[in-house]
């Protein structure tokens, strides 16, 4: 299903709205920073998948609900190939999942909480890059 | 005491079978036919104040008029609840029960309840809109049906919280409701696995979304020679919608001639679909049914030809069963007309 | 492998000058417990509180729940590779303080969820309302990093649980249950007629706050592997997971894994319970592929006829669950999966983030989005200020009187995906 293209070609791209991830990886990886919401990241990833990029990490990584954290980082392949239907399926389902959560929780986040969310997002991403 | 109005067909009113299905709606004070069983089950808590009887053919053939007449009849009694049926496996009766129950709820804003066999076409059509209790397939199951329907009826009439489908006996309606089972989940999983291993029937607690996967046909050998037809569920129809295809829950499809038409324009075509913003489809119906591009391809020799007719319906909440029936019908025509491939567009 | 599990019933918990168990009461010397916590220099202060069934107490935010146990006979100690040496556990004798638990609380990250109400409607949804709980409220030193805080709190819980479990070492259990798993060949000879069943236990493993440890190893770094069911009863698997309160598997769940217990109950009668396959839930899609390939391969290798698959967490684990199910079914092995649902507040949204037609036998722990009213409690144990964040979801969810309107997902263990509870949905 998900060919291990990344190990053969080494190319991956991070799409994120988390500036911590951007700062940490901008020099070593291809990072696309989205000035926008969690959903904007999902949608950008969907666009990229439709162009032929392959999804490498699960868009709903971490069990934080989409209405809890405002931050999201997703890894896709740097190379484009033919449309990967598994990637399409997962990203579409993830957007649907995102949309069913009530987003009001994200009002009034303190600085500490925002930092915690950025950290969690970063560490979850690192756990994927670690392998 | 709670007041209930009961709807039944000519058969259950003892007027007659199919030969009497034409009788128009009438209202009788008090209980008729199966109402007796309900009344016994309600005891002192509720009373059936009136029974409305309508022939199945009459209802279905004079839909709007029948609906209005019956709603007026119900209104007069200002009941706390409206029960239609149970219809068991009687198809037209089931559809009538669902239709009138939904209309009464929407117009008069009172709770409604029906009962049907799971394969009654009315069940598929209405189980997600109103509470439909699952019954046996014939009137022999009346006692069982009343046993399930009466307690739910009282709950609805009193405005009490309705539990999960598994507890209350109504057909799953797409709304998941929590409740406490008798055994914990792991034990239920073990029981389910034992049944599955032994080839016995088991019931999943969460049915997966329906996957009706179709294996693709082999590729068209030579597209430059192929005759291609257009079929859409996007509702593109000649302006004015001559066959009155419904904007949702379509019960029919249309077949229209596009001989010599190079481009679908705002002047001649529009969408009948009620499920999406029609502005862009109406401005240029080719956006949904790409006649213009295919004509170009035809001219350039990229495809053989376009089939003279296109088939269209509205996919907005249309029952899968209906869609299948449409396709089974016109697929034969397409084959007979020598069509090699079909482009299906949706919205 | 054979384990005798002895339960000493605990019906009450009290502070006392001496820690001991007497007449079904667990007496705890508060100061000794505090000192155990404060051995760790990462904590500047520690408080210990009691919460008993029926009391008007709300505990939040809960990190982990741990049952006190002690290894009485046989190799190793409870929580091998974490607190005790990496010795293979799961055989001999183990005593349990049944009805007692250590609950750790702490604001590791600002948004943590996890409520245990000891009475009222909320109590019906969490199994931990039925326990005599010793609640640890530990204050970290300033500037302690989140992952160090998580680790310190995790270990505080284990150490206190072991301290309490030690009190049961020389007691005579009220009930002794024996669990035995023979070798594959012996088992096959013993029950040649019975269908062979394995349990596929999915472990949350996605990085900080989302980790599970097996003999001290972070599960995300492990390939899918096998474990004897009794090893779990001695704490071979522990939780480091702090998110998704309703469907995270606490250490208590791992110690008392309900699927293992219910499969043992049928072992030798209607089925032959062969063993447990443990597999992870990683972020990387290629990992998901690899791990589920291995689950299917091991199930095939064991020659089983059926498996039960349990899950942990929300969202992407649905993909692991479905991959495991699909691939195992494809081997001709029958599956039943246990999950929970996020079907929206009105229950009408798509419940899972993934689906497949082969998942035709599903047990659900309920819809975690369903809204519940939690009345005010007389006492809050833990950190009252998190109520704002836990509930702070929608308009007026935290009310002036302390009552909370929230989704079920804030309650610890409410929609457990091991099937620990009776809650379900249709």
UniProtKB/TrEMBL annotation, chain C:
InterPro entries: Gly/sarc/bet_Rdtase_B_asu/bsu (IPR016585), Gly_reductase_pB_sua/b (IPR015417). The keyword Lyase does not apply. The active site is at residue 242. It comes from the Bacteria. Keywords: Pyruvate, Schiff base. One of its GO terms (molecular function) is oxidoreductase activity, acting on X-H and Y-H to form an X-Y bond, with a disulfide as acceptor. The modification Pyruvic acid (Cys) is found at residue 242. This is Glycine/sarcosine/betaine reductase component B subunit. It comes from Sedimentibacter hydroxybenzoicus DSM 7310.
């Amino acid at each position: 299903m998900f060919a291990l293209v990344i190990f053969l070609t080494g190319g991956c791209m991070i799409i994120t709205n988390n500036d911590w991830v951007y700062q940490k990886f901008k020099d070593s990886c291809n990072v696309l920073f989205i000035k926008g919401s969690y959903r904007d990241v999902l949608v950008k990833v969907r666009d990229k998948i439709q162009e032929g990029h392959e999804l490498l990490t699960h868009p709903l990584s971490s069990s934080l609900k989409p209405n809890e954290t405002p931050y999201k980082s997703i890894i896709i392949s740097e190379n484009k190939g033919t449309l990967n239907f598994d990637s399409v399926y997962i990203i579409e389902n993830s957007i649907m999942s995102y949309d069913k959560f009530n987003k009001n929780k994200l009002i009034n986040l303190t600085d500490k909480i925002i930092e915690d969310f950025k950290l969690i997002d970063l560490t979850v991403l690192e756990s994927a890059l670690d392998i | 005491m709670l007041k209930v109005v009961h709807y039944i067909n000519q058969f259950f009113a003892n007027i007659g079978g199919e030969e009497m299905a034409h009788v128009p709606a009438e209202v009788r004070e008090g209980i008729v036919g199966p109402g007796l069983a309900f009344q016994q089950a309600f005891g002192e808590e509720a009373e059936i104040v009136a029974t409305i009887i309508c022939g199945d053919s009459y209802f279905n053939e004079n839909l709007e008029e029948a609906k209005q007449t019956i709603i007026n009849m119900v209104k007069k009694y200002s009941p706390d609840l409206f029960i239609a049926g149970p219809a068991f496996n009687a198809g037209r009766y089931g559809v009538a029960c669902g239709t009138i129950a939904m209309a009464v709820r929407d117009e008069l804003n009172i709770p409604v309840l029906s009962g049907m066999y799971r394969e009654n076409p009315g069940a598929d059509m209405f189980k997600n809109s109103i509470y439909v209790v699952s019954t046996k397939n014939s009137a022999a199951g009346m006692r069982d049906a009343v046993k399930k329907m009466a307690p739910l009826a009282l709950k609805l009439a009193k405005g009490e919280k309705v539990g999960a489908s598994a507890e209350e006996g109504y057909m799953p309606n797409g709304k998941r409701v929590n409740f406490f089972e008798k055994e914990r989940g792991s034990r239920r999983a073990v029981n389910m696995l034992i049944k599955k291993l032994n080839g016995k029937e088991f019931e999943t607690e969460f049915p997966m979304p329906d996957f009706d996967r179709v294996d693709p046909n082999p590729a068209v050998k030579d597209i430059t020679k192929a005759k291609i037809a257009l079929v859409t569920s996007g509702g593109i129809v000649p302006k004015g919608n001559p066959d009155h295809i419904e904007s949702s829950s379509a019960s029919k499809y249309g077949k229209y001639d596009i001989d010599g038409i190079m481009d679908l324009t705002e002047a001649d075509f529009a969408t009948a679909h009620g499920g999406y913003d029609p502005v862009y489809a109406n401005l240029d119906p080719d956006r949904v049914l790409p006649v213009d591009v295919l004509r170009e391809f035809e001219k350039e020799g990229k495809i053989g030809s376009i089939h003279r007719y296109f088939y269209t319906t509205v996919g907005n909440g249309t029952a899968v069963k209906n869609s299948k029936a449409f396709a089974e019908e016109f697929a034969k025509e397409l084959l007979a007309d020598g069509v090699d491939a079909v482009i299906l567009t949706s919205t | 492998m054979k384990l005798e599990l002895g339960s000493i019933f605990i019906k009450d918990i009290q502070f006392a000058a001496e820690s001991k168990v007497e007449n079904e009461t667990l007496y705890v010397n508060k100061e000794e417990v505090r000192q155990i916590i404060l051995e760790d220099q990462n904590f500047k202060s520690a408080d210990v509180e009691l919460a008993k069934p029926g009391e008007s107490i709300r505990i939040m935010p809960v990190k982990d729940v741990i049952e006190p146990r002690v290894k009485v006979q046989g190799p190793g100690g409870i929580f091998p590779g974490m607190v005790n040496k990496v010795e293979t556990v799961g055989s001999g004798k183990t005593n349990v303080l049944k009805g007692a638990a250590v609950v750790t609380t702490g604001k590791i990250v600002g948004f943590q969820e996890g409520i245990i109400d000891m009475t009222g409607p909320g109590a019906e949804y969490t199994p931990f309302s039925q326990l005599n709980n010793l609640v640890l409220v530990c204050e970290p030193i300033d500037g302690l990093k989140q992952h160090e805080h998580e680790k310190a709190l995790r270990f505080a819980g284990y150490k206190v649980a072991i301290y309490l479990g030690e009190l049961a070492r020389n007691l005579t259990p009220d009930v002794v249950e024996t669990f035995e798993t023979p070798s594959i060949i012996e088992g096959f000879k013993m029950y040649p007629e019975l269908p062979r069943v394995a349990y596929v236990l999915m472990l949350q493993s996605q990085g900080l706050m989302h980790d599970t440890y097996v003999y001290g190893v972070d599960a995300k770094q492990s390939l899918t592997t096998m474990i004897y069911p009794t090893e779990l009863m001695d704490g071979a698997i522990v939780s480091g997971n702090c998110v998704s309160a309703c469907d995270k598997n606490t250490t208590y769940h791992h110690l008392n894994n309900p699927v293992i217990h219910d499969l043992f109950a049928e072992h030798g009668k209607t089925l032959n319970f062969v063993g447990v396959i443990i597999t992870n839930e990683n972020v990387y899609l290629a990992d998901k592929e690899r791990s589920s390939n291995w689950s299917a391969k091991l199930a095939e290798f064991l020659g089983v006829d059926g498996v039960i698959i349990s899950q942990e967490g929300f969202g992407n684990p649905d993909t692991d669950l479905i991959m495991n199910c699909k691939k195992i079914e494809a081997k001709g092995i029958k599956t039943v999966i246990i999950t929970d649902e996020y079907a929206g507040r009105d229950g009408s949204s798509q419940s899972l983030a993934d689906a497949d037609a082969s998942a035709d036998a599903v047990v659900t722990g309920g819809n975690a989005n369903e809204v519940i009213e939690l009345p005010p409690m007389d006492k809050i144990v833990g950190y009252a200020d998190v109520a704002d964040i836990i509930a702070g979801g929608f308009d007026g969810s935290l009310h002036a009187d302390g009552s909370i309107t929230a989704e079920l997902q804030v309650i610890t263990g409410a929609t457990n995906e091991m099937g620990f509870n009776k809650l379900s949905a249709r």
